[in-house]
Prior knowledge:
By secondary structure, this protein is an alpha/beta fold. The protein folds into 2 domains: 1-176 and 313-426, Rossmann fold (3-Layer(aba) Sandwich), CATH 3.40.50; 184-298, ABC transporter ATPase  like domain (ABC transporter ATPase like fold), CATH 1.20.1580. The protein is built from 15 helices and 11 strands. A 6-stranded mixed β-sheet has the order 5-8-9-3-10-11, with helices on both faces. A hairpin with a 2-residue loop joins strand 1 (98-106) and strand 2 (109-117). Helix 9 (276-282) runs antiparallel to helix 10 (287-298) and helix 11 packs parallel to helix 12. The longest helix has 17 residues, at 132-148. The protein is elongated. The relative contact order is 0.18. Residues 223, 225-226, 230, 246, 248-249 line the site of zinc ion. The site of zinc ion has 7 residues, from loops.
Amino acid sequence: xxxxxxxxxDVKLVRWPFEAARRxxxxxxxxxxxxxxxxxxxxxxxxxxxxxxxxxxxxxxRPGGATGxxxxxxxxxxxxxxxxxxxxxxxQPLGKDWLELSGIEVxxxxxxxxxxxxxxxxCLTGVSGSGKSSVLxxxxxxxxxAVLAGGEPVNAAKLLGAQDFGWLAVVDQxxxxxxxxxxxxxxxxxxxxxxxxxxxxxxAKERSLSATAFSxxxxxxxxxxxxxxxxxxVDMHFxxxxxxxxxxxxxxxxxxxVLAVTYDDATIDQVLEMTIEQAxxxxxxxxQLATVLDxxxxxxxxxxxxxxxxxxxxxxxxxxxKLANALVRGAKGGKRGLVLLDEPVTGLHPADVERLVAxxxxxxxxxxxxxVAEHDLHLxxxxxxxxxxxPAAGADGGRVINQGAVADIIGGAGPTVAYxxxxxxx
Length: 426
Ligand SMILES: Nc1ncnc2c1ncn2[C@@H]1O[C@H](COP(=O)(O)OP(=O)(O)OP(=O)(O)O)[C@@H](O)[C@H]1O
Ligand SMILES: [Mg+2]
Ligand SMILES: [Zn+2]
């Protein structure tokens, strides 16, 4: 079993904070809580800063208490022993609405059925090669996308429960764009709002500059020598091409007319050089812009320049940018979203994991559904629902070997469950 788990899982188990998990032990064998009868767990091996860690008051002996579930940081008296009258919206029972994907056939997955509680956090666990990403990207994402577009599930026989969903976000580490024309400002749509602000200034109006003039992607206001890149590519014949600063705009990307316009004393090229954190302080209106910038800060991108080219973003940064877009979308009213993340914890510092979990919480608070494929069992320990793939990799994997709330599967068999017990009770 040790051999099956990637070495890095062990490393994380040692490195991560255990206190919270310890305080919320799930005693093995006490997991026979009907799925419908338990509340949202607020317990966590990773801290949930959005809601704090609470007092852990109501752990003992009640339905749902066995999961360490019914904790809240809200200043409330301990709830009544048997739950139904709890007046905490976070303690809605699992089991009312489900997304069910059955007959999954893709890669090594042969005929698997999965259930996902709507509005909750599900963690897909399993050893490397067991089929997590296959299920997430090639069955769940593909089927949801197809069904939302009025089609049939892809790589699965049936998808039930999709009618409550209005959108899907796949938050992976793939690049957000392959050209320097895309950057955090354009990808988050913050730039559209910023351009509109600049076009609304008296200076822009005097010069008859519309919002389009402040785009570096269309002709009109940009520097045409470098077509808005600020740099020019020099062909080196036998060596890789090099980029040199445009000598006409001096790297400022725009023509003199546009660069003469200021919004609150900043020119458009200065705005693009601001970090997201600086921009969030600088732009306090319109509210939509403040919301977008706030989401970018919340996912941990505050240090990135608004205009940093997409080609220069790391995989983790690209993933957080997608998460920020999902946060903005998820906070809007209307139909709820399905947000899928593949190994978001990989490479994150524990402090960043706290931030990640807070972002997932924000999505859940707005009734969106989150599914994460993740090796790191500390994330699994805070999930409402586990879909455990295995038992091994490749042809020896691809099956759902455990499925349920942590408390319900903790007594089961398989490598994940064995390690999950350690995470929760160490
Ligand atoms: N495009 C593909 N075509 C055929 N087989 C694939 C494809 N992608 C993955 N597989 C195989 O399917 C199995 C499951 O792969 P998958 O990527 O779903 O595993 P995983 O659980 O996400 O693993 P990891 O934790 O390493 O990301 C593996 O044996 C893999 O080799
Ligand atoms: Mg994978
Ligand atoms: Zn130029």
